[in-house]
Amino acid sequence: MANGIDRASPANWPYPSLVAHRCGGTLAPENTLAGFDACVRHGYRMVEFDAKLSADNELFLLHDDTLERTTNGYGAAAVHLWAQLAQLDAGAWYGPQFAGTRLPTLADAAARCARAGIAANIEIKPCPGREEITGRLVASGALKLWEGQTPPLVSSFSFDALAAARDAAPSLRRGMLFEEVPADWLRIVRELDCVSLHASHRYLTEPLVAEIRAAGLHVLAYTVNDPARARLLAQWGVDMICTDRIDKLQHDML
Ligand code: G3P
Ligand code: MG
After folding, report:
1. Is 48 a pocket residue for ligand 1 (Cβ < 6 Å)?
2. Are strands 240-243 and 173-178 parallel, antiparallel or unpaired?
């Protein structure tokens, strides 16, 4: 118990200790429904994915600001209408067996979570200049789309996106994302009323994890692909490990 908060209570933290990074880690094209299939096949009960807005404000899953790396499209994602984005191939870059895989909408992701009975960490990944609107629309959309399911954990590297998410859907649990945890982390998470702090595992230390937990927050570490490192982080008190290697990290090894 820290700050009077029972951190372990499922009412406060209804999530498992492992989450599949970008849906299926490196076992499927990232941020696609094929990734959800891989997640389920490997016994994972939670996915992390990146959500952003098309030019006409459709909520969909994509990591990069641009289309080239993970689709057969070109240029900035933010300037394309959803009707154009929906035509793109988001699987062929990964392997021919995934050719024809489409970019999922946030609604597709919510429906798949419901069908598979898995939880979600929605990372708000705004295209540059669209932080506030993306935070607002992702949070209000998620609140409706996940009705009746375990509420998603909403995170972002963008303070402005997370502030907009807080204002649009205060009841959704929020996690602040950092690469390296800055000195003023406590002020930031308090201002955003976060329940968790998410950081690159490379910068986490045992005393820092203890300090974050003592403030009553849960800790997520990304992207951890080595089982020994995952075990150590769990021993330090890290609550959730985000991994690409859903074939190597299993719940019973933590
Ligand atoms: O949420 C953890 C992780 O997804 C953050 O990094 O770049 O993979 O979205 P990135
Ligand atoms: Mg992410």
Report:
1. yes
2. unpaired
Token pair belonging to 163: 């502030």
| Alpha-carbon separation of residue 30 from 44, 190, 244 (angstroms) | 16, 32, 10
CA separation for the pair 159, 191 (Å, rounded): 10
- Ligand 1 pocket residue status of 58, Cβ below 6 Å: no
19, 21, 29, 26: which is closest to 104 by C-alpha?
29
Task: Report the distance separating Cα 73 and Cα 145, nearest Å.
Answer: 28
CA nearest to 52, candidates 38, 36, 71, 39: 71
**CA-to-CA separations, 193 to 8, 43, 176, 217, 224, in angstroms, rounded:** 18, 31, 9, 10, 26
d(CA 235, CA 54): 41
Look at residues 11, 148, 36, 54 and name the one whose alpha carbon lies nearest to residue 91. 36
pTM (whole model) above 0.85 = yes
Domains of the chain: 12-243 (3.20.20.190)
Query: What's the Cα-to-Cα distance from 202 to each of 51, 178, 180, 194, rounded to whole Å?
Result: 24, 11, 8, 22
Q: Which of 12, 10, 35, 23 is nearest to 122 (CA)?
A: 23
Mutate which of 242, 243, 244, 245 for ligand 1 pocket (most atoms within 8 A of beta carbon): 242
Supply the residues annotated as catalytic. Answer: 21, 63
Q: What are the tens digits of pLDDT across the range 180-238?
A: 999 999 999 999 999 999 999 999 999 999 999 999 999 999 999 999 999 999 999 99
Measured in angstroms, how far is the CA atom of residue 177 from the centroid of ligand 2? 9
- 188: nearest Cα among 212, 214, 210, 208: 212
Length of the chain: 254
